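Workshop exercise sheet. Pairs work together: one partner reads the sequence aloud, the other fills in the structure field after running the prediction. Swap roles for the next sheet.
Pair: D.N. / O.F.
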Amino acid sequence: MRAQRQYEPELKGKIIRLQLEEGRTKKSLSMEYQLGQGTLTYWLQQHHIECQFNPNVKEQADACEENRRLRKKLAEQEKEMAFLKRAAVFFAKEI
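Structure field:
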C-alpha cells in the first residue's frame, strides 16, 4: 500500500479555483502540479459536496463559475469586434 501524500490546503484551493474559474482540465492541472487525476477528481468531488452543505463555499464556487462564463463571453465578443474592424477596413478600401 502506498503512503498518502499530504497536500497544503492552499494548493488544493488554488487547483480547485483554476478548474472552476479558468476551466482548466484535470489533465493539464495534473501535469502542471504533478498530481494524479484521481487525486484531482477526489478534491473536486469533495468541493462539490462541501458546496451543498456550506453556503459560503457554494457562493465562492458560483462566483468562480460566473467569472469563467463572463470571461468566455468577453473573449467571444472581442473576436467579433476584431472581425468587424477587419471587415470595416476591407470595405473602406473598396470604396
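Discussion prompt: The helical segments are 9-22, 26-33, 37-53, 55-94. What would you look at next?
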